[in-house]
Amino acid sequence: MKRKSWHLDRRTFIKGVGAAVLLPYMECMGMGKLSQFADAPQVPKRLCFVYFPNGVSVPGANHKKYSQWNWFPHKTGTDYEFTNSIAPLAPFKKDMTILGGLSHPNSRSVLGHIAGDTWLTGGDLRGNKYNNSISVDQLAAQKLSKHTRIPYLTLSTDGGVGYKSRASTLSFDSNGRAIPSEHRQREIFERYFSPAGGASTKERRQSLQQDKKIVDLVLEDSKSLKKRLGQNDKTKLDEYMSTLNRVEEQVKRNEKWLDVPMKEFDASRLNLSVDPVASPEDYLRSTLDLMILGFETDLTRVMTYMMAREDGLGFGDAFPKIALNLSGHHGMTHDKKTGYQERLGKYDQWLSKQFAYFLDKMKNTHDEHGSLLDNTLVLYGSCCSSTHNANNLPLILAGGKNMGLKHGSYETFDAKHIHMSNLFVSMLNTVGVNVETFADSTGALPAIFN
């Protein structure tokens, strides 16, 4: 822009800001908006993925007795009706789209539970080799992380990584290695929302310097050790080094953000002392509340949450037994006794209730840019339609009103030509991560997105 004679230069503006008289911002300072001075995007665009295991109840639309416990609606388009399984989500019809027919081609022929490792990757786990790839959240974090304190938040009910084919995380790095998830709510809050227990900036800087020294020493020793290891141990060390590199990157990031105050927030609604055995609902909602707080404070713009693990592993398998007096979730999916469709459907309904809670809080929590939900794409779903069947995945895409999404319908897609990764391509481009392909995509998703 050509400089006008009446423009004030940056130095004059800064002097005015520093003066006790608090010189007001004026048009002659040449900036359309103050946000341009900070070189920050005006409106944050976020991605969120919420996962449940083992598939859903799908007795079919023509089942005489249990058709209303079919997870998918019986009619496509905008005039579909919610079945019992997803009825709690009815108030959010205009904020969400139900997706049918999508899956990852490489996962269709594997045991359904294994497909959980590929839900966000589209990786190829067929045969004896484990060829997973980067997850969509991690690809997004590579670009969106420049705006936030932490690049992403990976959460689960059990924590850690689990093991290959039965991961306890949804996130995988650029080499297809599982990224550990976090699950202890109080530790998560203290780590990210109350760093160093409220210590002074000077004390935190000293602590960060010490962390850097420790990481540097371990990295140096590891590089020396690698020269003397066999191939298997080298592989294990490489995985360890990847984790350590992430720690190093976060230490540097923490140092960068040390002098930037976090947005003020109200933590009174948080319950960080939940007993999951007494109330699985409160336990899940405690994590969902932390996620909402993370978006509200712009801690990160990328989150994943695995509400429970596949194949009966982990504590989440007991949720239907504790909350609804049913059996374990994985066992329910194999139960073929009379009425099993309704029993499984009731747990689907309970899970939908928790997701409805999340959507309600996201919709009614506002930052300076409006409703959190309107600036966030949220994908909810599983890696199976019914247990062991990794086709026609149950998926709901919600939010993103301010990003041009058109919701309110149930859309189905031709599995031969349109893959779940097409959805990821559209989601990535919508939040400003420009890609032409992801995994086995054949293009963008031909609906919903402008």
Amount of beta strand: 5-15%
The class by helix and strand makeup works out as alpha/beta
Q: Main β-sheet: number of strands, strand sense, barrel status? A: 7 strands, mixed
Distance between the termini: 31 Å
Output the helix-strand order: HHEEHEEEHHHHEHHHEEEEEH
CATH architecture field of the largest domain = 3-Layer(aba) Sandwich
How is the largest sheet built, in terms of strand order? 3-6-1-9-10-2-11
Low-confidence stretches: 3-38
Q: CATH first level of the largest domain: which class?
A: Alpha Beta
Helix content: 25-40%
CATH topology-level name of the largest domain:
Alkaline Phosphatase, subunit A
Provide mean pLDDT, rounded: 86
Overall description:
With 450 residues, this protein is of the alpha/beta class. It has three domains: 1-39, no CATH class; 45-183 and 267-430, 3-Layer(aba) Sandwich (Alkaline Phosphatase, subunit A); 194-261. Helices cover 33% and strands 9% of the residues. The chain is built from eleven helices and eleven strands. It has helices spanning 10-18, 34-37, 136-144, 185-192, 201-226, 231-257, 280-296, 319-324, 329-334, 340-364, 420-430, and strands at residues 46-51, 96-100, 153-156, 162-163, 166-167, 302-306, 366-367, 370-371, 376-381, 395-399, 410-412. It has a seven-stranded mixed beta sheet with strand order 3-6-1-9-10-2-11, with helices on both faces. Helix 5 (201-226) runs antiparallel to helix 6 (231-257) and helix 7 runs parallel beside helix 10. It is globular.
List keywords for this structure.
Alkaline Phosphatase, subunit A; 33% helix; two-stranded antiparallel ribbon; alpha/beta; globular; 450 residues; single chain; seven-stranded mixed β-sheet; DUF1552; DUF1552 domain-containing protein; disordered N terminus
